[in-house]
Amino acid sequence: MSTELLDLPATRTLTIGKALNDGLRRAMEDDPKVVLMGEDIGRLGGVFRITDGLQKDFGEDRVVDTPLAEAGIVGTAVGLAMRGYRPVVEIQFDGFVFPAYNQIVTQVAKLHARSRGAVPMPIVIRIPFGGGIGAVEHHSESPEAYFAHTPGLKVVAVSNPVDAYWGIQQAIACPDPVIFLEPKRRYWDKAPVDTSATPEPLFGARIVRGGDDVTVLAYGPMVKTALQAAEVAAGEGRSLEVVDLRTLSPLDLDPVVDSVRRTGRCVVVHEAPVTLGLGAEIAARVTEACFHSLEAPVLRVGGYDVPYPPSKLEEAYLPDLDRVLDAVDRAMEF
Amino acid sequence: MSTELLDLPATRTLTIGKALNDGLRRAMEDDPKVVLMGEDIGRLGGVFRITDGLQKDFGEDRVVDTPLAEAGIVGTAVGLAMRGYRPVVEIQFDGFVFPAYNQIVTQVAKLHARSRGAVPMPIVIRIPFGGGIGAVEHHSESPEAYFAHTPGLKVVAVSNPVDAYWGIQQAIACPDPVIFLEPKRRYWDKAPVDTSATPEPLFGARIVRGGDDVTVLAYGPMVKTALQAAEVAAGEGRSLEVVDLRTLSPLDLDPVVDSVRRTGRCVVVHEAPVTLGLGAEIAARVTEACFHSLEAPVLRVGGYDVPYPPSKLEEAYLPDLDRVLDAVDRAMEF
Amino acid sequence: MTAVRNETEIDIGEAGEFAGPVPGAGAPHLPQQPDLVQLLTPEGERVENAEYPLEVSDEELRGFYRDMALVRRWDAEATALQRQGELGIWASLLGQEAAQLGAGRALEDGDMAFPTYREHGVAWARGVDPLHVMSLFRGVDNGGWNPVQRGFGLYTIVIGAQCLHATGYAMGVQRDGAESAVLAFLGDGATSQGEVNEAMVFAASFAAPVVFFCQNNQYAISVPLERQSKVPLYRRAAGFGFPGVRVDGNDVLAVLAVTRAALRAAREGQGPTFIEAFTYRMGAHTTSDDPTRYRLAGEVEEWKLRDPIARLKAYLSRSGLADAAFFEGVDAAADELAVRIRRGTVEMPDPPPTAMFDAVHAEQTPHLAAQRAQFEAYQAGFEGGAE
Amino acid sequence: MTAVRNETEIDIGEAGEFAGPVPGAGAPHLPQQPDLVQLLTPEGERVENAEYPLEVSDEELRGFYRDMALVRRWDAEATALQRQGELGIWASLLGQEAAQLGAGRALEDGDMAFPTYREHGVAWARGVDPLHVMSLFRGVDNGGWNPVQRGFGLYTIVIGAQCLHATGYAMGVQRDGAESAVLAFLGDGATSQGEVNEAMVFAASFAAPVVFFCQNNQYAISVPLERQSKVPLYRRAAGFGFPGVRVDGNDVLAVLAVTRAALRAAREGQGPTFIEAFTYRMGAHTTSDDPTRYRLAGEVEEWKLRDPIARLKAYLSRSGLADAAFFEGVDAAADELAVRIRRGTVEMPDPPPTAMFDAVHAEQTPHLAAQRAQFEAYQAGFEGGAE
Ligand SMILES: Cc1ncc(C[n+]2csc(CCOP(=O)(O)OP(=O)(O)O)c2C)c(N)n1
Ligand SMILES: Cc1ncc(C[n+]2csc(CCOP(=O)(O)OP(=O)(O)O)c2C)c(N)n1
Ligand SMILES: [Mg+2]
Ligand SMILES: [Mg+2]
């Protein structure tokens, strides 16, 4: 087994992609039951190289290049989990998770409840998600709401290298199934990661920028966009509080509610279509919890209710800092 | 071809099940391109007998007993639609739609957009949905939010024999794919149906009981529950306005907004888990549209965020009139 | 080389059982089927098959009879209980006792089975308490046994999903270096599901120690086999690169021998096998079903001639392995079992409503804990109000 | 009857091509493969196959060369354009020209083809303007041709989904009583998808006039064929009850003959056929891929000896059917095509952003109309603000 990580300084500047790779490596070193499965994850190291080098170091039994069948990957992961393994599945792109949908919704999500707790399902399903990379159809989607609506699943989205490094290890250690969403267009974003630190809990939101006027919620790739918007807003004398939701199921809304009670205004941002996107749930819950504090309805900035468009149109489709600021303006004017 | 319907009086008392059967028959008579497909829909007439007698009268090419494979059914329906047919697919139970999920989300929903309108997808996917029939796992689910979150699909839910009779015909005539949800535990509910009337549009909500204090929204099986609640509330001097949403995608919220601007209070009821159920979207939109009229947040009554429980627990799980009244009380007290 | 169209056509013709409109009906005596492993004829005569030698003690033979008779009695009692409103539904195994007991008894300690919703006979063989199965059909839970401990998965209602679980479990067995095998149950209808075929792809690709045991009971609810496949199902396997075999599913000895051989091969690292147990669903699909709508009474009558229990009884009697006292003893035991099952079922307490919140996750979420608390408060308030 | 384990093992041994670690690499001269239909050897010699007699005119032969050369030139230009940032990605067909043109030209008027994302050669044969294909890879739209009018479906990126569409379309052809057939394209990797196997179930069950044309180019991105199947893919079909055949996918004549025969059988009501075109992806999976990570250069070199275009060129030259002037003419036409494609691509206008709202439904919803209007107002306000 490799000891590659041991010889390195505790704090290094890592991309999200490399942080995931290191996190996976560390999880595999820590627990021999961790098995990675997916299409092209072995020799190729995955189309985004997130599993680069792991098959070489851990062998073909622990980093499994599977046949081309997503239901098969997730369904066999269920069996491996029953046998005491901790499978970590890579779905190559967001748009290709649907062949596995039946296994995820009717089996992965339900087996623990079905067995009244006798059968844990410590499966992680990694999905590079979201758009903005100029890809063809099915390579830019944001399917998180489908999973967050499904009881029995936990859903997280990371936005930065630190959360990527710790989050993947925490998701693997979690005894429940976790849909682990990776912001594919931010894979190359860098930050220093202290691998000797004590990580924050996986299932918690985090205030990433303090502010007074409007609370802006985002997750995954949109956190950066929200922060950019806050920067611009600050220049215009407007103070945005930005929350990285981090966990989408369960949602951690306590810090959000505290914030909105202070600011009185809330904007949620995501790439997924607005209708029944995470923003809908958040709006409903925040409104209920903050009814008497709200100066404006919770406003949502998201993808339009259309199939993800051809890449020449994705800039118009995707929320950007201007659309966030537009929503902030509308919230202020309400 | 049968002329069974011609010899009957225009107005008859029909169950929802029989109204669907008559509606399907009439659609098949009107358009030779209508083809029914599904498991056990032919000789058996479907497990709920919704297609009873149709194979006998229209033959095996138009009422097709398929192999046991939902992706296969929906995927071949796509091909038939491309060839100019209007396939009407029966999914035997809500919980068995997931093997077809990939075809529905990545193909049925997207082909019209993918082809820039060159390929219409006039497919109807009929799903008996919801609980309350004392069934085993996977036979009592409410998957509507998964579809309503998917751009490109239209989603309707019927609650009564009149809408069943006309709705199925309108869905078949619709050039777009329609997820057609049938309230399975109400299949045996009866009402007079005037088959010579002019039907209301398919994609519209309807106020089914006027009231002043709280607007209660429901669809499918919960409409009856909402009406029962209104009846009891009336006895207690409280006046509920009940809206049958009828269409879930697109939502028709104009009459809802009008109503809530009057009542100032709104409760949404559905069987699906609350988190990211239709109630979330409705709460978000109604709040935005009625922000200054609302006396209380939009409250949601739904299934809990757990897998649909074993049938001995479904009474505790499912919204009933008491839970609706409890929410009404909470809305009044806010 | 040429396309295999002609070969295939000839093959279909030879097998012959698809000639008539009703599968099997044209061939009431199974030995007419050239590709069927059989060790006990419908008349109860023991025959040998060189490929599948079977040593089985007299005690084991009587045990099989006892098992099958008891399971059949259980099944009848469950059907009666459903009629009386004590179960929500029941999926009868009537006619499939030999397939299930033969397969179930071929399993060894450490092996794992993944059932559909009809494998009560296998449950029995694995030592699952029948009341755990009853609680599922009563709507109390989804089956109360611990699957891994019992070596018997939970019933799986989504057709075919368990075949992938079985294959994955077998991949785990492989990684453990264990000498165990996995048995995946499926129906004839299930062979059409994509996931089942993916399970065959994975099993073949990884040479996983899994055996697919398909009970071809001729119907998927109302849909006869021909809609799923025009060629015998056991041939599906060869196209995926592993062996398929058809066994007389109403012959408990043949099923035992064939399943044992396949499991042994799996344990020895030879990879998967597909077994088609040719049998018949003598009853309705479930208690909700009305088979008179889609099949003729005559067909059922013909299959009665191949009854798996009568067949073994004939053999036991004829060969002097069991006498009237033995059969009476079994009947008495069956009656006792029925009483126990009836009493246990009707007395089964309803679960507490909060149970639905408790096993959703291994680590309960604050959200669900709060929802549970609200639920309890609501229930309590309601009781308070009723006081 | 017995399990077919031994049969299967022998079969695998006979076919032999799975012996080495690299598929096909151990057998650089295809005639070593006993189960491969071939009409033109890698050296360009015409051979006969009694099952697949082929009459083809000199003009047609030259046409095939021209088609393949032009399509290869298109492919090279597209790769270059991607490198220069004019396309988002490109999926090269390099090495698969014979498979695609042979299959494409076997189609008749009224037939329908359902491609994956790599069938540029089939698009060409169906008369689709290359710029429609380019617009997809440029991100302007998802392919601008009318699929039904062209008899050529839109590119399908979700692996295998189109096989069900093809089967359903064929069921429609059947209902219309039309004498047409449908050709479904798929890759070797796609054979593992459940939906593809379901398509085979449906096609067999309804004897639908559909032919599955699998280009086994030995890889699914980085994953070699052995991960999907240990036995030759064409054998998959027999298990579903219809014929399978393997053809030399780098031999345009053999592909034409075999595909024609299968389509004819389909049109005549004989049901589906599965064709495995044994070929090789000479380039990367797409322009995003780096094949040096998973395969050796030597393998590619060996396959160059079987190049489909060189092979036909050798035959045409040797048999005097084409002279230097002809080949120069083709080269000139190819250059012209490349210029047209380059110009058309770089000059292609971006679509108006509102396009994303316009074809979601056949009947626009009020909701989407409102969202579109908001979008326009937002865009306008933004432009106003920028002034
Ligand atoms: C995915 C899925 N689709 C449909 C059903 C409904 N259904 C329950 S049993 C059954 C037939 C199964 O037939 P077969 O596989 O032959 O098993 P058998 O019931 O005969 O034992 C069907 C269609 C289901 N349970 N799951
Ligand atoms: C359902 C699905 N899963 C994964 C992918 C990603 N992907 C694109 S091409 C490909 C390999 C396809 O291999 P094969 O079928 O052999 O076709 P080839 O590319 O070799 O022509 C994969 C895994 C996809 N497009 N769809
Ligand atoms: Mg069956
Ligand atoms: Mg390939």
CATH architecture of the largest domain in chain A: 3-Layer(aba) Sandwich
| CATH fold naming of the largest domain in chain C | Rossmann fold
Number of strands of chain C: 7
* Overall domain count of chain A: 2
CATH superfamily of the largest domain in chain C: Thiamin diphosphate (ThDP)-binding fold, Pyr/PP domains
Enumerate the spans of chain A where pLDDT stays under 50 for 5 or more consecutive residues. none
Strands in their spatial order, largest beta sheet of chain A: 3-2-4-5-7-6-12
Q: What letter string, H or E per element, gives the SSE order of chain A? A: EHEHEHEHHEHEHEEEEHEEHEHEHH
Distance between the termini of chain A: 60 Å
What general form of chain A does the structure show?
A: globular
Bound small molecules, which ones?
Answer: thiamine diphosphate, magnesium ion
- Per the principal axes of the C-alpha atoms, what is the gross shape of chain C? globular
The tally of structural domains of chain C comes to 2
Largest sheet: number of strands, sense, barrel closure of chain A: 7 strands, mixed
Write the CATH architecture name of the largest domain in chain C. 3-Layer(aba) Sandwich
Q: What Rg of chain C do the Cα atoms give?
A: 22 Å
Radius of gyration of chain A: 20 Å
In terms of quaternary structure, the protein is: heterotetramer
CATH topology of the largest domain in chain A: Rossmann fold
